[in-house]
Amino acid sequence: MFAYGSRLVRHSVDDMPELSNSDGARSAPVDVVLPCLDEAAALPGVLAALPPGYRAIVVDNGSRDGSPQVATRLGARVVHEPRRGYGAAVHTGLSAATTELVCVLDADGSFDPRELPALIAPVAAGRADLAVGRRRPVAAGVWPWHARAGTALVAALLRRHGVPLHDLSPIRAGRREALLALGIRDRAFGYPLELLLRAAASGWRIQEIDVVYAPRAAGTRSKVSGSVRGTLRATRDFAAVLRTVGMPR
C-alpha cells in the first residue's frame, strides 16, 4: 500500500491539476466509485488520501470483514451490489453517482487517489473522453507475471486495432452519462475490456496516463492478480467479451 506522502508517490498534492471553471473558481465535485470486496484494512488510507472535492462512493460487493461499516464511519457514501462481480459493482456505482465527471478506483490501496486529478484534467478540459491509468509498479512482484502477461497480450491486440493503450487498469476517469450510455453489459472482470472496446468503436478519444502501482494494503488480496486462478478467470471473461463485442474496426 502507498505510504502516503512518502517518496513512493510521484506527485505531491500541490502538483496535481485542480478542476476549475473559466473564471478560476473551483468547479463541481467529482464522485469516485470504489468497488469493494473485503477491503476494510485498506479503506482508511484510501479514503483519507482522496483530494478535496473527490467524494467516495464505496460499492460493497458482499464484504464479510466490515468494509461497509468502516466506509460509513469514515464519511463515505456506501451502496450495496449483491451480484458478485467487478462490472456489477462499477455499474452500480456509476448509476449512484450524481456528478458530471466521475472516477473509478480500486479500494485496495494499490493506487494513490491523489493521482486522480491528473486523470480528470484532460477529460474536464475536453482533450479526452476517457482517461485510463497505465500502471508503473514501484517494486518487483507488485504486478505478478501471470496478470501482467495477460494484460499485455490484450493491450497489444487493442493497439493493433487502433486503441492506443498498454494497460487495462482499474483506475480511470470520464463523464458519467457518456459511460452509462455505452451500454456495457459485462458484470464481471470483462468490464474494463468491454468499456475500452465500446469507447473505441464510438470514436472516443482515449488518453493513457502513467500512475504508480504499489503493493496492496496488508490483509487484503487481489481478486484477479493475486492468484493464477484469478487471472484465468479474468482471461475467460475477456474472451467472452471479445466474442460478444469484437475488436473495433
UniProtKB/TrEMBL annotation:
SUPFAM superfamilies: Nucleotide-diphospho-sugar transferases. Signal peptide: none annotated. It comes from Asanoa ishikariensis. InterPro entries: Glyco_trans_2-like, Glycosyltransferase_2, Nucleotide-diphossugar_trans. Residues 32-149 form the Glycosyltransferase 2-like domain. It comes from the Bacteria. GO terms for molecular function: transferase activity. Keywords: Transferase. Belongs to the glycosyltransferase 2 family. This is Glycosyl transferase family 2. Pfam families: Glycos_transf_2 (PF00535).
